[in-house]
Amino acid sequence: MSLTRVPETLGGRPHGRSSGRSHPGRVREHNEDDWLARDDRGLWAVSDGMGGHEAGDVASAEIVRRLGLVDGHEGGAEALARDVVGRLEEADAALRAYAAERGAGAVGATVVCLVAVGTHGLAVWCGDSRLYRLREGEPMERLTRDHTHVQDLVDEGHLSEAEAERHPQAHVLSRAVGAAPALDLDFRALSLLRGDRFLLCSDGLTRVVPEAEIEAAAADRGAPPARVCETLEARTLDLGAPDNVTVLVVDLV
Fold first, then answer.
1. Phi, psi of 153 (to 5 degrees)
2. What secondary structure does DSSP assign to 69-134, as a single string?
3. Is the pLDDT of residue 92 over 60?
4. Based on CB atoms within 10 Å of each CB, which residue in 3, 86, 108, 119 is the most buried?
5. DSSP label at 50?
6. Own/partner pairs for 216-224, CB < 8 Å, 24+ apart?
């Protein structure tokens, strides 16, 4: 993956407040999700270890550990974005080496990152962990596209979005960090406004709680990020939580 794909439209300084929660759910014994909140760096991320594969918890923890080393802000916004991508490339290489050393199959995880600097931002993702934005007076907007085989069928016109959500293979990934010979990230440049609220999550939330309920909880401006996370986690558990669930909410102030 070429770093030339990183947009050069970021500028200013970040100012966000966040809160996150992660739970193993009602069925799984181990939590293979992980998350990162760096309000001081304008960087937030959620990672979900590949279910049914070896060492999913190792994969998500490695991604979050590498992102935690990001320190590019002093060099400007472009340096921050490039540092994020570089750390994900390091994690990808480390996970492929880890799998090769153990003769294991793919050891991988999804990742979704929000980079916020002043009035500009960047979404970076690989897999089906999602980023949503809630802006005053507008409906909730999903900013990421799932990297799944079912989403590919939707894009090709073979399935509707509603059919995709109910498809038995909706969780089968077409991309993940550590799961292919080369890392393939997606990017989306964002325009940021004071008052924007972002929600990052693993598919343990979106496969269980309808988007309308997610929006209703996140759109409550009287609820701080911690309360939104608590509400959505509790609702997921009420609905059975067959997978790990992670929710991270960021308010730009």
1. -65, -35
2. T---GGG-HHHHHHHHHHHHHHHHHHHHHHHHHHT-S---EEEEEEEEETTEEEEEEESS-EEEEE
3. yes
4. 108
5. P
6. 218/132, 218/134, 218/140, 218/249, 219/134, 219/140, 221/197, 224/19, 224/251
CA distances from 6 to 39, 55, 81, 238 (A): 21, 30, 7, 40
Query: Which residue do the tokens 């897999």 mark?
Result: 127
Burial of 65 (0-12, 13-18, 19+ CB in 10 A): middle
Categorize the per-residue pLDDT at 1 as very low, low, confident or very high, splitting at 50, 70 and 90: very low
Range name among 47-51, 134-138, 156-160 with the lowest pLDDT average:
156-160
**Is residue 133 scored above 50 in pLDDT?**
yes
Extract the tokens encoding 206. Answer: 């979106």
Range name among 7-21, 109-123, 170-184 with the lowest pLDDT average: 7-21
Judge whether 22 and 230 are in contact, CB under 8 Å. Answer: no
Helix (H) or strand (E) holding 31: none
pLDDT of residue 130 exceeding 70:
yes
- Rounded Cα gap, residues 221 and 127, in angstroms: 29
Encode pLDDT of 160-201 as tens digits. Answer: 766 666 666 667 899 999 999 999 999 999 999 999 999 999
> How many residues are recorded in the chain?
253
Helix (H, G, I), strand (E, B) or coil at 226: helix
Q: How many CA atoms does the CB half-sphere of 27 hold within 13 Å?
A: 11
Residue 8 to residue 14: CA distance in whole angstroms:
16
- Give the C-alpha separation, 25 to 237, whole Å: 6
